[in-house]
Design brief:
By secondary structure, the protein is mostly helical. The chain is built from twelve helices and no strands. Helix 7 packs antiparallel against helix 9.
């Protein structure tokens, strides 16, 4: 048993649970749910301060500053929404020549995949990724077959180890794609943990170590497998660009949905505070109403936090392209 396997098996359950929770917060969790949980945490914290008399709200004058800040902050967020939409729009505004070049390059890449797989590539990202993975798995198996009887035992063992590791990774990606929805993020998330840079390095070192002993069919199989691995990284980077456009569009829309009610609640709270005798309800109710109003006003900020958390994580884990990698891409 290798060290990595024993380390995973000896890892305590709490650590695994913490890792799953971290992945849920950073990547897998619904962004609106995470924002809602954060807003609820705000509300409970404010309620606890108010009820415990640490913040008794005896003087509601300070709430003017709180709600005024929330109003101006949410208007700033709405401005951010406009800026995001302008950024997305600027990327979509292209001349016919630019659009033609982009489409031709995409079609050429798709035809390369279809030529290798000898079948029509699906239009949806999940099906396309499975086709690329299937082609890469077939090339890896072909590489293993070409070394039988053609290399010394040490070379065959090393080749079998490389093929086994690659096949296990292909099976993992294929299983995750099969179990997940067909959405663009679910497809992209299955490839976030590796870009096969280290596998490419292992293949190059294997060819360098046994260069004089490699038969031509083995050398060709290595070239074809390297091409398949690079094609997988191209697919991943392309899916990332699509995902970021979809995610930023969704963020701008949801910020508008959340920002208008948040501004309305903050303005309504300011109107309530304008009475000569203070709010028209007693202090016990004030201790509940105003903390909740503050949490509602802060919800757009929580929503922005939830979305940016995931887009930043995805960008960090896909920053390097083949043949380079970073530690963040292998967590």
């Amino acid at each position: 048993m290798d060290d990595s396997t024993s380390e995973r098996e000896s890892k305590p359950v709490s650590s695994d649970g913490l890792g799953r929770f971290k992945r849920w917060v950073l990547l897998e969790g619904n962004r609106s749910v995470i924002a809602g949980l954060l807003a609820v945490a705000f509300a409970l914290a404010f309620l606890a301060l108010s009820i415990s008399e640490l913040a008794p709200l005896a003087d509601v004058q300070s709430l003017f500053y709180v709600f005024s800040g929330l109003i101006s902050g949410n208007f700033t967020l709405i401005t951010v929404v406009v800026s995001i939409n302008q950024l997305l729009l600027s990327q979509e505004l292209k001349s016919p020549g630019e659009l033609e070049s982009e489409i031709e390059a995409t079609v050429d890449y798709r035809e390369e995949i279809e030529a290798v797989a000898d079948r029509t590539a699906p239009a949806e990202p999940s099906g396309f990724l499975r086709l690329v993975v299937e082609s890469a798995r077939r090339e890896a198996q072909r590489l293993g077959g070409t070394t039988v009887g053609a290399l010394p035992e040490s070379g065959r063992d090393e080749a079998d180890e490389i093929v086994s590791d690659l096949t296990a990774e292909f099976d993992r990606i294929d299983t995750l794609v099969d179990q997940s929805d067909a959405g663009i993020f679910n497809t992209l998330s299955t490839t976030l943990e590796t870009n096969f840079a280290r596998e490419i390095q292992r293949l190059e070192e294997f060819r360098r170590d046994y260069g004089d002993d490699l038969p031509p069919e083995t050398d060709d199989a290595i070239d074809d497998l390297l091409d398949r691995l690079r094609e997988m990284d191209i697919a991943r980077q392309y899916f990332k660009s699509i995902y970021l456009q979809v995610e930023l569009s969704r963020l701008s829309r949801n910020l508008l949905y959340a920002g208008i009610p948040a501004v309305g609640v903050a303005i309504g709270s300011l109107f309530v505070l304008t009475g000569l005798s203070g709010p028209p309800f007693g202090r016990p109710l004030q201790r509940i109403v105003f903390p909740i109003a503050v949490a509602v006003g802060a919800f757009p900020l929580a929503l922005l936090f939830a979305y940016i958390l995931r887009t930043a994580t995805v960008t960090e884990r896909t920053a390097a392209i083949t043949p380079f990698t970073t530690p963040e891409q292998e967590v």
